[in-house]
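Regression test case RT-17, inverse folding.

Input:
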């Protein structure tokens, strides 16, 4: 399953009201570490399909969401469960560390 593109319009439905955990990657096209992390996020989306929802928020397009969740550095990865942030990671992390956020 591919990553969802998250926006202010669909964030509540796709993330806050989701039954399963949701991994959200806050990123931007100009961010080198974000581009390094992108294939890791894509792998996790494919491997955890059906168990974890994976979405991406482009902070340039969705500044309000970035501000609402206190994103000051990117990439920032957050895991939401039952509408709340359960885990947060800032900066590039290897796949194993991102997977630990889902445990």
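Golden output:
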């Amino acid at each position: 399953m591919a990553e969802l593109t998250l926006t202010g319009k669909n964030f509540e439905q796709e993330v806050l009201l989701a039954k399963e955990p949701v991994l959200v990657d806050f990123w931007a096209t100009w961010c080198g570490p974000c581009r390094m992390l992108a294939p890791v996020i894509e792998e996790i989306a494919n491997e955890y399909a059906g168990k974890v929802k994976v979405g991406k928020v482009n902070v340039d397009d969705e500044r309000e969401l970035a501000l609402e969740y206190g994103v000051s550095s990117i990439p920032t990865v957050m895991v939401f469960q039952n509408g709340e942030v359960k885990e947060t990671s800032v900066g590039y992390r290897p796949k194993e560390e991102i997977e630990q956020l889902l445990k």
